[in-house]
Amino acid sequence: MPSTVALTVARYRPEQESEPTVQTYEVPFRKDWVVLDALNHVKDNVDGSLAFRWSCRMGVCGSCGMKVNGTPKLTCATFLSDYLPGPIRVEPLDYFPVIRDLVVDLTDFVRKLKQVKPWILRKEEKPPAEGEYLQTPDQLDTYKQFSMCINCMLCYSACPIYGLEPGFIGPAAIALAQRYNMDSRDQGAAERLKILSEHDGLWQCTFVGECTKVCPKHVDPAGAIQQYKLSAATHWVKSLLLPWGTR
Amino acid sequence: MSEPHYTLYHPRWYRRRVSVWWWLQNRSYTGFVLRELTSVFVAFFAVVYLWQLHAVAQGPDAYAQFLARLRTPRLLALDTVTFLFVLFHAITWFNLTPKAMVVRLRGKRVPDWVIVAQNYAAWLVLSGLVAFVLLRGR
Amino acid sequence: MDLFTCDVLVVGGGGAGLRAAIAMAETHPRLRVAVISKVYPMRSHTVSAEGGAAAVIKPGDSLDEHAYDTISGGDWLSDQDAVEAFVREAPEEMLRLEHWGCPWNREPDGHIAVRPFGGMKIERTWFAADKTGFHLLHTLFQTTLKYDGIERYDEFFVTKLLVDEGRCQGVVAIELATGQIRAITAKAVILGTGGCGKVFPFTTNANIKNGDGMALAYRAGAPLKDMEFVQYHPTGLPFTGILITEAARAEGGWLLNKDGYRYLQDYDLGTPTLKPVLRSMELGPRDRLSQCFVKEQEKGRTFEGPYGHYVHLDIRHLGERLIDKKLPFVRELCLKYAGIDPVNEMIPVRPVVHYMMGGIHTDIHGATPLRGLYAAGEAACVSINGANRLGSNSLTEILVFGARAGIAAAAFAAEQTGVSPSLVAQAQDEHRRLEERFLRKRGGTERIVTLRAEMHQIMEESAGIYRTETVLKEAAGKLKRLQDRFQDLSLDDKSYTFNTELTAALELSYMLDVGQTIVQSALERRESRGSHQRTDYPQRDDERFLAHSLAYRAEDGAPRIEYRPVTITRWPPGKRVYGR
Lengths: 247, 138, 580
Hints:
- By secondary structure, chain A is of the alpha+beta class.
- In chain A, 34% of the residues lie in helices and 13% in strands.
């Protein structure tokens, strides 16, 4: 086991430079350390100006998404020992504008999240005092997986379509729409489909599948999107054959 | 401060350009592009098939001419490549089917491998049937 | 200086803040509500909560039972009128969450499922696998997206409350993306900024829990209540401090010492049984369990590892199927961060700082003594948790009091006609302070990492599970010196764009203030109650200390402690009995 490992970190200080640069730091190697620990070591002891986001350090808040050796990862869940002997390259997520160092701008994603109407849509609401909407464990199971998204954006950084067509709504947003579509308490599938059938929606996805590969929470956004496509196509065929039946 | 106020605070976000060679970055991307390219070869295969049908309809001489054309080294090479790509096409899409088709029996999700296996099984059965019909006449 | 305005400003985008915003959007649709948060709301620490949220829903349970469990769990320091309101409103709040889409676990017939939890006599903890906080927060956040009336200021770091004419009228904040200082004025402000676990070195809390709102309110003149009550959660992973939820024990996990012995039985917590018995053994209250660990450690019966002492949490006997169904996140965390599979191996655990019972003093409507300033959630102290919080009460608390604070703040704001014109000058002063003290400062010899490490050591030594007079007195002096040394801080990063070193320095200053209140309150409470245990005053003293401590900021910056009696309605102080 070596005692140190090299960390090559992308830097970008917009007030000083017009293009990102790269800086290498020698950090202590510990088998318990994740990349985030190494970044914090640099920030605390070597260069306090290194900027990056982090919070929970247990893989549930989604703040610390960055590229490690070219692959989008949660740096709080990526162990240094998996990258020996190094050097370990840390860069900001792809396809988002870089604000500073390892910090990218997420406003596009947050806007798209709102677009897909990720809330329970019902024709009639029952007052809470009347009790819960019944939902069996099997019904819960149908959408449970898609509800696990921590909004870490690794899937957007892995999706070449998002890179080439920035208008694309994107894996996490579509998976979240599907999560609500499949929730037995929701009645808004038709409304969401109208939004997602548009040019930059569902059909922009060509099933590269990289989003599912990098998802740290096994949400399987690619699966969600293909299932959504299937149900959307079925719905369209049904509406052609039985125009009254789908109302 | 000598500079105007706004330039100090104006967000200068860096937007990286996506390279034309993005699909060479990693294996999945390359595999994806190859998979998409199979559509070209599938189309080519369909054209050859239509050509074959046309030749059959025209009689035994035309058909013999068709077969002779197919035997030229260039077309043989193209056909081999096409065959490999169509195979790649079939295998990748068979393996991806369970992503789109989620079947629930008695409330539990049918495991992915079952759906994939069904595709291959159907392929085998159909191929067997076709082979039986074709070879029976010999 | 750019001035933004709104009617009610919610500081903090966690469960309490978002619930308050929704409450206002629903009841006062024409009110302009804004949520300001230093991180995107889905990153708020509510997301890490695992176990569940308690509310009475099953037959055989009653509001009085829930109230009694909470009050006795809090060692009678809970304000009983607040507890009564809390248990009464809890079930409807939770059903509202369910209506908004929260994926609560269900019984086979489709009704909400509940699980047992520590300190509760009857099962009443609703749960969503073992990621309840995550589902709760995301449900709340996604529901706020429904209301176009709720504005958001994401990644704005609040540095000061604007107070004029005895009324809180807004905040000054740094827009992180550009570094610009903004003033946001409001007719009422709600603080939902969470606790301050990062004051301690070893905590389940995320990096963002620095007591921001507590310090802001403290500096503005509002008192911090019951700060000496720091909850140590009995089961955190060594080194990382990552939380292993109480649900693991609720499902039947055992705590074993070095000899494989269920040591809790030696400490009047009941007799060991195969299946968990409520309010007994591993389902006792958190403060008692953490104290048992320390006693075991003193007897030399704990394991010693590279990151300190620990004991074992054994859930192997629950079986893989149950673990994957009810505790999947626990399994994931153990595999990743402890390198063990809890299906076959025992989990190393030790007590870790988890929650602050104390916080900004509010009444049962969420109003602080400072007009126009409200608070809810962990940042506030109503108090329902008293001297020790029961697990799964906090997630419900943020909903109940988030809604209450929202409605109270909205009613207050509706009565106000405007804000003072002098706020702009205050905001400009704050801008100057930030520039001079941090960004344009020349010289300075102190580093954030050094001061923070020293603060951690002081807090760990003095405000641990067991405390004593001399150490606390020394700690108060040391913290005062750290505050002085903080004036000499030097930053590497003097830029404007997303300056996280500046925010770290500001967070450190909040933590130093809050740390001082913790130590001073602990020093002056000369009794042992709940999670505040004094080796020199080991008994509970209801005559002198059946009261809340209120820490006010004195002229010299040090805390001045006053006391306020606890509200007792129907449950006179008694003994806390577990295991019998």
